[in-house]
Amino acid sequence: MTEDNKQDAPAVPEAAIKPQKPKPRLKTDDELEKVADRARQQRRKFVSRSMTGFFVLVLLAFMRFFFPRTLFEPKTKFKIGPPGDYDFGVDTRWQSKHRIWVIRNAEGLAVLLAKCTHLGCTPDWKEQENKFKCPCHGSGYTPEGVNFEGPAPRPLDRCHVELDPEGQIVVNSIQLYRWEHRYDPGAILKV
After folding, report:
1. Does 189 reside within a domain?
2. Is residue 36 part of a domain?
3. Is 137 a domain residue?
4. Based on the structure, what is the number of domains in the chain?
5. Gap between the Cα atoms of 147 and 87, Å rounded
6. What is the mean pLDDT of the chain?
7. Whole-Å CA distances, 53 to 60, 72, 99, 120
8. Which of 5, 24, 96, 157 would give a disulfide with 1, using CB separation of 3.0 to 4.6 Å?
9. What are the φ/ψ torsions at residue 68 (nearest 5 degrees)?
10. DSSP-assigned letters across all residues of the chain
11. Taking Cα atoms as reference points, which of 85, 79, 115 lies closest to residue 100?
12. pTM > 0.85
């Protein structure tokens, strides 16, 4: 451009000139090192917290074995009161607590284990039908415990019964008698 051309060009007001953005300044090596250190510290914190959490969970899982779940079963030898507390027929008051029925008839007093001989379900006493009926597969038993319908292979088991010196009936639900041994001294209580 010549001097003549400069004079011919229109003058641009200073306000119309856009200020240029300053170029981003490059970070120095010290600043870059600080950013890298911060990132490393964050990674170390994350890894150390993750490892701590993992080891705490492993320790808790390990400690779980020192406190096993236990199943509290009812006592197998217990007292059910004097013989005079039981009328003729089937008494179901101990069914839920000890899984037994007390049967009293002309022969004496016996205690049946409330466990179906088919698969071990607890039969129900149906007073209107005068029988025990297993809800699982339909086995039926007479009031004396003899199976007469359904898949049950044999009669109900009898528990060992005896009188203690105080006149209380003591039942042992571990010592069982099968139907063929129903008249053994421990299978029936003569009252």
Report:
1. no
2. yes
3. yes
4. 2
5. 23
6. 84
7. 11, 34, 47, 46
8. 5
9. -70, 155
10. --HHHHHHSPPPPGGGSPPPPPPPPPPPHHHHHHHHHHHHHHHHHHHHHHHHHHHHHHHHHHHHTTS-----PPPSEEE---GGG--SEEE-TTHHHHSEEEEEETTEEEEEE---TTT----EEETTTTEEE-TTT--EE-TT--EEESS--SPPPEEEEEE-TTS-EEEEEEEEE-GGGTTSTTT-B--
11. 115
12. no
Structure tokens that stand for 156 in this block? 């109900």
Cα angle, residue 88 at apex, residues 140 and 77 outer, rounded to 5°: 75
Backbone angles phi, psi at 102, to 5 degrees: -100, 125
Indicate whether 115 and 137 sit together in one domain: yes
pLDDT tens-digit readout, 117-153: 888 888 888 988 889 998 888 899 998 888 989 898 9
Q: Which amino acid is at 150?
A: G
